[in-house]
Design brief:
The chain has 4 helices and 8 strands. The chain has about 160 residues and is of the alpha+beta class. It has a single domain, classed as Electron Transport, Fmn-binding Protein, Chain A (Pnp Oxidase, Chain A). Strands 1, 2, 3, 4, 5, 6, 7 and 8 form an 8-stranded antiparallel sheet that branches. It is globular, with a radius of gyration of 17 Å.
Length: about 160
C-alpha cells in the first residue's frame, strides 16, 4: 500500500466488511476481459459467502478462473472545505469455490439473512424459505488470502 499512514489492521478491515451490505467483486471475464459485480456478502471467519442463481455470467467467470478481488467501502464523504474525501475501505483477494455441502450452504444463508434481513428471521420464516428454495439457490465461498484496510479519517 502506497499510503502507509492510511493502512489499517486486519480487525479494522473485518469491521468494514461486516458493516457493508455489499462488496464489489472483480474477476476475469471471457477472454480475460474485466468483469465486476456487486454482491451481498457475509464474513464467517476468513471466508466470505454469497448466494446466487445456479448459472450466469458471474459463475461462468468463476468456474473458468476462481481468483477474485472484492472491494468494500463503509463510508465515503466529501470534505466541504477541501478537495478530498474521508473514507473507510477494505480489499480482499482470494479464491472462490461453489459450496456443495448442504449444511455449509444453510449456515452461510442463515448468516447472510441474519446480517441483511434480521427482522425476517423470526419464527420459522428462515426454515420455510430454505425448504422451498435451497435446491435452486447457489452459494459460493471466497477464501480470503489477502486483506487490507484503509482509512482517511476526518481531522
Amino acid at each position: 500500500m502506497r499510503r502507509k499512514d492510511r493502512e489499517r489492521d486486519r480487525a479494522f478491515a473485518y469491521d468494514v466488511i461486516d458493516r457493508c451490505e455489499y462488496g464489489v467483486a472483480a474477476m476475469a471475464g471471457e477472454g480475460g476481459a474485466p468483469y465486476c459485480v456487486p454482491l451481498s456478502l457475509v464474513r464467517l471467519g476468513d471466508t466470505l459467502y454469497f448466494h446466487c442463481a445456479l448459472e450466469g455470467t458471474k459463475l461462468d467467470c468463476l468456474r473458468r478462473s476462481p481468483r477474485v478481488c472484492v472491494s468494500f467501502v463503509a463510508s465515503n464523504q466529501a470534505a466541504l472545505d477541501k478537495f478530498t474525501t474521508y473514507f473507510q475501505s477494505a480489499n480482499v483477494t482470494g479464491t472462490a469455490a461453489e459450496v456443495t455441502e448442504e449444511a455449509e450452504k444453510i449456515s452461510a444463508l442463515r448468516a447472510l439473512c441474519e446480517k441483511l434481513t434480521p427482522a425476517n428471521m423470526a419464527g420459522d420464516n428462515f426454515d420455510r424459505a430454505i425448504a422451498k428454495s435451497l435446491p435452486r439457490t447457489g452459494v459460493w465461498r471466497i477464501r480470503m488470502e489477502e486483506i487490507t484496510g484503509k482509512e482517511k479519517p476526518r481531522p
